[in-house]
Design a protein that fits this description.
The complex is a heterodimer of chains A (336) and B (269). Chain A has 336 residues and is mostly helical. Chain A is built from 16 helices and 2 strands. Chain A has one domain. Classes of the chains: A mainly alpha (336), B alpha/beta (269).
């Protein structure tokens, strides 16, 4: 080692140093989201739901796609955030943003407590425990129907956002931008976390847990932290979900909620944040098209989901966005 | 007053020698059973500061188990592991790493989908205590990246820094194992067969890297290749069936009849 050391690895270092920078292509989903509002006013209800589910899927991506913790009970946090906001409004606390924030807190607490047990286990056991938590909360909400409203649900009202913009359950104007704003916020939080050293260490946990222990990572603690962050974002998504509708039923805790959001995420591609955008949009639009064309009885939709999932797993194991990876790599190699 | 100071000096001097002479890493009566299977039997072992200590033994002698007991990856059935004279039974694996007890793996245990630089980056971030940071992105911490680059250059992998582990030949992956260990700034380094699985033609790269390790690190190396062992080690411990058969300087071990019998016996088997 004489003289100045060779520096042929500048490419790799530069890539690491600029990985977090925003690229122009990242504007596309946001431009689309804004355009949809004006171009398809008749579909604002559906579009709002898509925005909220994207936020929900992003929160799931943090644990599934980054930390490698596969969960089949993520609706536990969605539902807890939703019920917090709804019950507060029902009890007279009608200011929506503080109710949503409290929804994040209760969901986060649930994540903190349940994570203490769940994250000690691995793989199938872990999967079963996440599912168990979701089912327990669902059954609890069903039993406590004098509080939760059970299957019939509760209708509630929120005051205007910031005292200026009242919710509009007919045309979904304010509602759409409310969901949009919190999707932007939630996405920025997730994106920041993912590109921070914390997020990189989650990828390390996903790639090789044994190695993470051996480089001195408190793996348990780190997984618990991301679990709480994901739970809080899911709680926010749940709160918005019910606030924009002015109604809640125990459906927010349903297993189908947990299962579908995982399917949507896998469909779009895990561990890339934008997979949530693609997966949720494709899934939801497909669902609606099928129901419009074929009707809901019998539910052909489930057949379509099944086929879509099989095709994805077989031909695009890295999700729909993953299909573009080889193209992008070739493009990058050609342009220095 | 003067007399008091004198005593104090004496005490300090005594402590000084004591610290110098005490092994950095020590085990006392270390045992591990998996049910009826005994994989570590009453192992007394001491690794001195700056040591070059080889642990050898036939397949299944319990060498990797011994490493796992030292690092905390496996809890012992009985006995104790001492780091700097203190029992570290209560410390989890990652806490032992923070205290300078570092290992490499016999079979590459890396982040296969990440680049070489990212592998080292993760390690450096952990050692520097920034890995839990939620906000400031990796890209605005150039000091961490620079340190990772320095380590990549130290094992001469700068040309491969941007390639993922998957894309590297096995021998070069082995170098990443060593670079990760170095990135943790170890005081005690446990090398579990560093050249295992590396084609003969490439093994000298690994062995050169091992030979070039800083002298102040206490190193325990597990190795099958006797040429490497006798070139590298100043002290050798022979493990057979989970127990220490012999321990001493290389020439003593080479002359030991029992050790010869174990290896000759294996040679015929």
């Amino acid at each position: 080692m004489t003289g100045s050391p060779p520096r042929t690895n500048n490419g790799a270092a530069a890539a690491l140093l600029r990985a977090h920078r925003f690229r122009a292509i990242e504007l596309i989903p946001w431009i689309l989201a804004i355009a949809v509002y004006f171009l398809f006013p008749g579909y604002r209800l559906l579009a709002t739901q898509i925005l909220v589910l994207i936020l929900f899927a992003i929160s799931l991506d943090l644990i599934v796609g980054y930390a490698g913790i596969v969960s089949l009970g993520h609706a536990a946090f969605f539902g807890t955030g939703a019920y917090t906001a709804a019950l507060l409004a029902d009890a007279g606390w009608q200011e929506p943003i503080s109710a949503l924030a409290l929804g994040a807190v209760t969901a986060g607490l649930l994540g903190w407590v349940s994570g203490w047990i769940i994250l000690r286990t691995r793989e199938l056991t872990l999967l079963m425990l996440t599912m168990a938590l979701g089912i327990i909360l669902y059954e609890l909400a069903k039993d406590l129907d004098d509080i939760t409203g059970g299957f019939d649900g509760i209708n509630f009202e929120n005051s205007a956002i910031l005292g200026l913009f009242p919710f509009d359950v007919l045309y979904y104007t304010t509602n759409y931008w409310y969901a949009f704003a919190f999707l932007v916020l939630g996405f920025l939080v997730a994106r920041t976390v993912v590109y921070a050293p914390f997020g990189r260490s989650l990828v390390g946990i996903r790639e090789n847990v044994r190695r993470m222990h051996a480089i001195g990572t408190p793996v348990q603690q780190r997984m618990r932290h991301v679990y709480v962050i994901a739970a809080m974002i899911a709680g926010v998504a749940g709160a918005i979900w019910v606030q924009v509708q002015g109604n809640i039923t125990i459906g927010v805790y349903e297993f189908e909620m947990s299962g579908n959001i995982l399917i949507m995420l896998i469909l779009g591609g895990t561990g890339r944040l934008y997979g949530a955008f693609v997966g949720v949009t494709v899934f939801t639009i497909l669902e609606n098209l099928t129901e419009t064309v074929l009707g809901t009885d019998p539910p052909y939709w489930e057949l379509v989901v099944g086929v879509a999932l099989i095709v994805t797993v077989l031909f695009a194991p890295r999700g729909l966005l993953g299909v573009f990876d080889p193209l992008i790599r070739r493009f990058r190699e050609r342009t220095p | 007053m003067t007399a008091d100071l004198g005593t104090a000096d004496l005490v300090t001097a005594d402590l000084g020698t004591a610290v110098l002479e005490a092994p950095v890493l020590e085990t006392k009566g270390l045992c591990k059973n998996f049910g009826a299977l005994v994989v570590a039997r009453d192992i007394d072992f001491a690794l001195d500061a700056g040591a070059r200590h080889a642990v050898i033994g036939p397949n299944g002698a319990g060498k990797t188990t011994f490493v796992n007991l030292l690092t905390g990856a496996l809890p012992p059935t009985s006995g104790s592991v001492l780091l700097d004279g203190r029992d570290i039974a209560a410390l989890a694996e990652h806490e032992r790493v923070k205290r300078g007890l570092v290992r490499t793996f016999q079979i590459n245990t890396l982040f296969n989908g990440l680049t070489v630089l990212e592998n080292i980056y993760l390690t450096v971030a952990e050692r520097m205590g920034v890995a839990a940071g939620l906000f400031r992105p990796v890209g605005s911490r150039p000091e961490v990246v620079a340190e990772a680059e320095r380590l990549v250059e130290m094992v001469q992998l700068q040309d491969d820094a941007g390639r993922t582990i998957d894309e590297l030949p096995y021998g070069r992956q082995r170098l990443v194992e060593i670079a990760i260990a170095l990135a943790l700034d170890p005081r005690v380094l446990l090398l579990d067969e560093p050249s295992a699985g590396v084609p003969g033609a490439e093994s000298h790269i690994i062995l050169d890297a091992v030979a070039a390790l800083p002298a102040d690190i206490a190193i325990m190396i597990i190795e099958h290749d006797m040429d490497v062992v006798f070139r590298f080690a100043e002290r050798i411990t022979v493990l057979v069936s989970g127990a220490v058969l012999a321990s001493g300087p290389p020439e003593e071990i080479a002359a030991d009849e029992r050790v010869r019998a174990v290896y000759l016996g294996q040679g015929h088997g």
